[in-house]
């Protein structure tokens, strides 16, 4: 089994060799975006819970990130996982942008 030696930057969504990505706060970032990340305070502007029975909100969150990227606004999506009372695994995803000073 071959393991990928490539990864995607959480901010610019470009593909890089794994050794070109930095891991900061559980995010993988290219060198340029690592500086952007470290130079800003980030706030979540939208969060959603995604499960097998509800995938549409994840697409909406990614579409919003793509629109921000097209307007040169850095952003990233960070996810965590939880189990519902019914035993279903849920993904809690949040879209972050730099906080205005």
Protein model, in words:
The chain is of the alpha+beta class and 101 residues long. It has 2 domains: 1-39, Wheat Germ Agglutinin (Isolectin 2), domain 1; 41-101, no CATH class. 23% of the residues lie in helices and 39% in strands. It contains 2 helices and 7 strands. The strands form 3 sheets. A 3-stranded antiparallel β-sheet has the order 5-7-6, covered by helices on one side. A hairpin with a 5-residue loop joins strand 6 and strand 7. The longest helix is centred in the middle third of the chain and has 15 residues, at 56-70.
Mean pLDDT: 89
Tell me the total number of β-strands. Answer: 7
Count the domains.
2
Question: SS-based structural class?
Answer: alpha+beta
Low-confidence stretches: none
| Radius of gyration from the alpha-carbon trace, in angstroms | 15 Å
The helix content, as a percent range, equals 10-25%
Shape: globular
User: Quick one: biggest sheet?
Assistant: 3 strands, antiparallel
Distance between the termini: 48 Å
Order of helices and strands: EEEEHEHEE
Number of helices, where a helix is a run of at least 4 consecutive DSSP H or I residues:
2
Strand content: 35-45%
Sequence of strands across the biggest β-sheet: 5-7-6
